[in-house]
Amino acid sequence: MRRWTVGLLATAPLWAAVADAQPPRAAVPATALPPPRFGHTLDIGLVSGVVIVTPPGKKPFKLGVQDRNIPIGSLLDTTDGRIDLRAAPPAGSATGTATTAKVEDAEFYRGKFTVRQPAGAGVTQVLLAGGNRSVCSHGAKPPAQRRALPHRTLRLLGASGTGRFQTRGRYAAATVRGTIWTTTDFCDGTLVSVQRDVVSVRDFVRHTTFTVTAGHSYFAKAP
What we know:
Layout: H1 12-21, E1 41-54, E2 61-62, E3 68-71, E4 75-87, E5 104-109, E6 112-116, E7 124-129, E8 153-168, E9 172-186, E10 189-196, E11 198-203, E12 208-213, E13 217-221
Parallel strand pairs: 7-8
Antiparallel strand pairs: 1-2, 1-3, 1-4, 4-5, 4-6, 5-8, 6-7, 8-9, 9-10, 9-11, 10-13, 11-12
């Protein structure tokens, strides 16, 4: 009895011929984004993972591969992803826009945040968002029976980039020009950890500014 063997060797040339006969796909040009406008809009792009964006007064959406221009005040959830954020510098043009050469660019990850650019601030402020404050509650205990606030993590945000960005936690703010740093809110304070370069940390409780170098951190204690 003759045995027949069927494989892909006989069909491969046919598929190759069919593929070669197909017209090449035209490149899909990326939609040009308008430049970010100071105090009005930001440009964002997905770096990795999953990022959820909630514009003011609108429904949240999942950020795709296409970069987006979003309004200031949008909630950005990078808990499971990483985002590239481009902002117009405070000293922009007369129209408040930024050219590609002047845009301030940083990546943010591992947390939720909003952005604001108040007039006269001189920096792009990145405000930590989210966190369950109930884990810090003393409950109904009288003041004499209350213990110190627990050292529990409420929220955090990692960042890396260039430009004048300021991450703001509950008890401290970190201002940078280009570095890698992490801001973490605990029940009992705010921790700023610097992985590269130098960060200026403003302690909201002590009303004092400290310089923190790479490999070091500063903890602003709650009052």
